[in-house]
Structure formats: C-alpha cells, structure tokens
Records
---
Amino acid sequence: MRHRVAGKQLSRTSSHRKAMRKNMARSLFQHGAIRTTETKAKELRGFVEKLITLARKDTLHARRQVIRELGDQFMADKDGEFLEQSVVQKLFSEIAPRYADRPGGYTRIIRLSERRIGDAGKQVVLQLVEDASAAGGAEGPGSGRRKQRAAKRHQAAEAVEDAAQESQAEAPADEPAAEEQQEAPAAEQAAEDASGEEPRDDQKNSE
C-alpha cells in the first residue's frame, strides 16, 4: 500500500519518474515554458517552485541543494552551440532575482483545447510568471488584470481632463467673437423694435 506517499506514479518507475522530472524542470528554466499533460504539469509545479525558493537565497549551500535535486546541464541555442550559462547559473542569476519580492506562485498552467494524439490526454502549457509584481504581498490572484484596467481608466480620465483644460484655454480667445455675434442680433432686434414703435405712435397721434 502507498499510504502517506505523496505524488503520482505516472505509470513509471521511481528512477524514470525522477529523471523525467529533472529533464522537464531544466527545459522549463531554459525556455520559460513547456507543453505537457495536465497531470505532469501539476506534479512538476511543486518541484520547480521549491527550486526557485531555494535559489532565492543565493548561497553556496542553496546552490548545492539545487544541483543535488536538479543536476546541472549546459544550455544550447537553436544552432546547437553551447551557451555560456548553464541551467543552474540561469536559475540563480536571472530567474530567482525576478521573484525576490514574490511569496510563491512562480508558475502558471494554461489549459489548451487540443488533445494529445494517441490517448487524447489533456494538453497544457506550464510557464514561468514573467511579471514579478503581478501578485505579490497581500494582493490576491488576478490583481494584475485589475491593475491594468485601473491604469487604463486612469489614462482615460487624464485624457478627458487634458481635453477639458485645452478647451478652457481656447475659450477666452473665442469669447469676444461669440459676444459680438450675440450683440449683433440684439442690436438688430432693438432697431426693429424701434422702427416698429414709431409707426404705432404716429398712428396713435393721428387717431
């Protein structure tokens, strides 16, 4: 019986399962995202986030712990040439500092509509969260979207205020012309009233 044994077997032996987990974690650190099944992604997520938490300490002991769990491997580009950094070096120099102020939640799982050919397994994309300030501190999940919406609303409000200020700045220059236009009809109306009153007075006198 597998009482109190965490994790899934994934239809593999212990050695096969550990090797697969290491290889997938290295690929994730190298490329930033990998495509796999949902079950594997959920099993890999905890392993990867523990390694990132260790790498945030940036000590010799933490580096040795990561190498023991993950191993180290040189990275190659698309042409097959080896890069200067290895996987562990990239983890400590680039990935871990990105999440210095983030208390966990370094990865996300994005479910895909496509199924794997053969067994129709659910496909997902496991990727590293790029924005370090998206959900840090006391903020809850999804605060990144709320921040973006608030920023858009703030920009729209600023644009409206700028337009109002510009219209107010242009208004004094246009006011004299508008007043003249208003005064002209008033003068014409007064002339018409004056011209209309004279005949009436004459008519009254004649009567």
---
Amino acid sequence: MAAKISVPMENKNKMKEIKIEKVILNIGGVADKLDKGVILLETISGKKAVKVKATKRIPTWSVRPGLEVGVKVTLRSKDALDMIKKLLPAIDNTLKEKQIQNNCFSFGIHEYIEIPNVEYIREVGIMGFEVSVVFSRAGKSVEKKKIKRGKTHRLVVTREEIENYLITKFNTNILRKRKNIENDSK
C-alpha cells in the first residue's frame, strides 16, 4: 500500500484575507507648530487635516482640556495604499520588528523632504510626522456592535501576517532583534 502524501493547500477563505483599513498621518504640537503641521499634512496627503484637542489635564506639560495638541489626516481604501507606497521609500523600505504589532504597524519620518518627489515648503521648514497603518479582516464590524458580539479574537491580524504582507506587497525589510536572530539560527 502506498503512503499518502498530504500537500498543504493555500487558504482561499475570503474572510481570512487581510486588508488595509486606514493610514493615519499625525503631528503633535501646539501653536505655531500646529499651523505648520496642518499645511504639511494637507500638502502631502491632498486631504483636509483635522486638529486634535486634549481631553485630560496634564499640569507638567501645561496641557488642559480643549487645548489643540495635534493634527491628523486619515486615509482609506486606494488613497491609503498609494500613501504607503509613497512613504515607505522615505525610510528605505525598512521597519524594525518592534514597530509591528497585532493589527497595525507604525513608523516615523524625521524630515518630510526625505519623501521622494516632495519639495521643501518654505512656510513649514523642516518637520517630521508619524505614520500608523491599521489592518483588518472582513467581519471586523461585528466587534463594534453592541448586541451579539462575535468571537473577535479570530479577527486579529497577527504580526507574522503583517510582516508577510509587507514583504510580499512592498518588498520591505524587517530588522530583527539580535536575540531572535541567534535563536533562529540554533
């Protein structure tokens, strides 16, 4: 009798596919830096920037509720994908392992002039910003419902899935910690 060889089949389940839910660009600051941040984010994204107000009081930083402390732009669907393609070359398509968590990854751009095809803006000067990319699966809206919440732990997009997505889709390098490299080689 011949031994049966099992061949792993690719998972074609549409509910398991991961997709980019949104890309958030943000800058923290007050007063003059906030106004410059609005100009910068609107120029880079082509969308309207929203100012973020503080909700808590932090006396050591002179923050009070209602004080504008940041500015952000949220991009979705095709705009989000185009923005990632535009911003990853600014960091040489390289991410550190600790910048990737479940459901998202984040990185910072130190100076916006590092982004390809973006010119210096005299009103803004030299400034950086943070980028957060959020992933999801189909059925994620179940988590937001108040009645009959489903088993949402199945909807978590793991770090490994995000790393594979970045490597295959954007040809990104993931820098590993030295400990993990030594353990993998043993």
